[in-house]
Specification:
Number of strands: 5
Order of helices and strands: HEHHEHEHEHEHHHHHHHHH
Strand order of the largest sheet: 2-3-4-1-5
Low-confidence stretches: none
Structural class: alpha/beta
Strand content: 5-15%
Distance between the termini: 55 Å
Helix content: 55-70%
Bound molecules: zinc ion
Number of helices: 15
Number of domains: 2
Radius of gyration: 23 Å
Mean pLDDT: 94
Largest sheet: 5 strands, parallel
């Protein structure tokens, strides 16, 4: 079982699982798409592997069942369509936990994306509290979320927390190639745009948000270079009615502006989604204008997060960009 990057996590997991000191409760944090579920599966594989070496061997029955998503003792909680968990489904999971494992001597429960559960996140943790406080010997529970702040103090004080470690663009390219269903040029484009986030790369290639957001960002940069207010507005209005696309486009634009700022002082940006765009901006605009544009993109993104009206945000932003270019 290959886990990219995460060298520190691998070292810690090996230490914890090879000496029989495994924690019964684990929290994994990281941005969506950063490999939280893969890290959870790796941790489970390290514990359940017949080799008991602290590193999954990849070839024993347990490792093979985990790799094929068919291990009967690795149980993943399934949320509703809106991402939240019903308390009944969590209560059922807790009562299932007393039943002995089917295969080896451990059962691992994964409750992913607990932060997406919104208002029920705290209630879910209250149901899980007893299991976290007094788990049966055979029971391990893993929860994932973007940040550990969403966990109750009573939970977080009883768990080990691991944060996913970033992967590189070349890791993402290698992994996407191994999936065997993408063209090489698309892989390179996705990895350039989304860096080492495997989940975002897949969204870029197959989803409906990141690819149009990137196109919008490129059109805005072209319009900025032409100093054409109408073109800027038109480029933003390609996202009309699609707030998430606009938000991602602003994220890409902030990256490009920051990249251009760095290029102006002779530094090379490491995480810019469009190097060529940043380069053209750095040649045509002053450092002050670029810094202002970066601020404007991050502020507008913040306003969308606060639920401000999308058309109003775009109109204001366009006027502000035009002013910054004068
Ligand atoms: Zn194994």
């Amino acid at each position: 079982m290959k886990l990219y990057s995460n060298e520190e996590n691998k070292r810690l997991i090996s230490l914890l699982t090879s000496k029989g000191r495994e924690p019964h409760s684990l929290v994994i944090t990281g941005e969506p798409g950063s490999g939280r579920k893969t890290l959870a599966r790796y941790f489970a594989a390290s514990l359940m592997c017949d080799s008991k070496s602290g590193t999954p061997c990849g070839s024993c029955k347990s490792c093979r069942m985990l790799a094929n998503n068919e291990h009967p003792d690795f149980i993943t909680a399934v949320p509703n369509d809106n991402g939240s968990y019903t308390l009944d489904s969590i209560r059922q999971l807790v009562s299932d936990s007393v039943i002995k494992p089917n295969e080896g001597d451990l059962k691992v429960y994964l409750i992913p994306d607990l932060d997406r559960s919104g208002q029920t996140a705290a209630a879910v943790q209250n149901v899980l509290l007893k299991l976290v406080e007094e788990p049966p010997d055979h029971c391990i529970i893993i929860m994932t979320a973007a940040a550990k702040e969403i966990f109750l103090p009573t939970i977080i004080s009883r768990v080990i927390t691991l944060a996913t470690e970033p992967c590189s663009r070349s890791d993402a390219e290698e992994w996407l190639t191994l999936q065997g269903r993408f063209q090489q040029e698309d892989i390179i484009r996705a990895a350039a745009c989304c860096g080492g986030s495997f989940g975002r790369c897949i969204e870029f290639l197959e989803g409906s948000t990141l690819a149009p957001a990137f196109e919008c960002a490129k059109d805005v940069v072209t319009a900025v270079l032409a100093r054409d207010e109408y073109m800027i507005l038109k480029a933003f209005f390609a996202c009309e009615g699609k707030k998430q696309v606009l938000k991602e486009a602003l994220g890409f634009l902030a990256q490009i502006m920051r990249g251009a700022c760095l290029m102006r002082i002779g530094a090379k940006p490491e995480d810019c989604c469009w190097d060529r765009g940043a380069e053209m901006l750095s040649e045509k605009l002053s450092g002050t204008a670029l810094e202002r544009l970066y601020e404007l993109m991050t502020d507008a993104s913040q306003r969308l997060t606060l639920n401000c009206n999308q058309n109003l945000t775009v109109n204001t932003l366009t006027a502000q960009i035009y002013l910054a270019l004068r």
